[in-house]
Amino acid sequence: MNRISVTDLGRTRYAEAWHLQQQLWDLRRSQMIGDLLLYTEHEHVYTIGKGGDSDHLLASGNELKESGVDFFQIDRGGDVTYHGPGQIVGYPIIDLNSYFPDLHKYLRCLEEVIILALKKFGIEGIREEGYTGVWVKGNKIAAIGVKVSRWITMHGFALNVNTDLAKFDRIIPCGIFHKGVTSMQSILGTALKLEDVQNELSNAFGSVFDCQTRKVNAIDLKTEISGLETQRQELIRGVS
Question: I need a surface site. Which of 4, 26, 45, 78 has the fewest CB within 10 A?
Fold first, then answer.
């Protein structure tokens, strides 16, 4: 059975988490680490995927600067979205060769993970035909945008738990004009502990991907990465 290490990075700025993902992707490709699932809660940021339309970001550069919201054009699929406090962002960095080399199936599995986790809180999440993500009564509660190269994954999903939904007013979320967004807090009428939701997501991930999950402390992970990255660079220099 495959094993996945699960790490909660806590609150991060987007650039920090993106750089960490790139490091981990390189190490996973080199078979120096196993599969991982990272959780984080980003500071306010808008991101747009490589196929996205910049016109779907309604806020101007000055507005972003004044409000302290970052903006990044990144290498995932999908259009513009928002990440921020109260939202759980999950970044699986896994080798799909160990599961199934099928991008469409991978996206459906990520949706299923979120649907199963929501069910534990009495929320019925569904798929909407023609769209990627998870929806509740016509409103999007979770966005998905991934990059898969050499069948190793990056980026992932964002689940609105206690998210400030007003931040979505300055974008056209995922380029979809006629749909709204929602959160677990909006549906249930109360804030939830992010740790509780993360635990259910991890349980669902283990079930859907038929793997064992184990928690790894963020400090331990970063210490291991530092040592492995040094080894990887030394190997690269040796080959060249």
Answer: 26
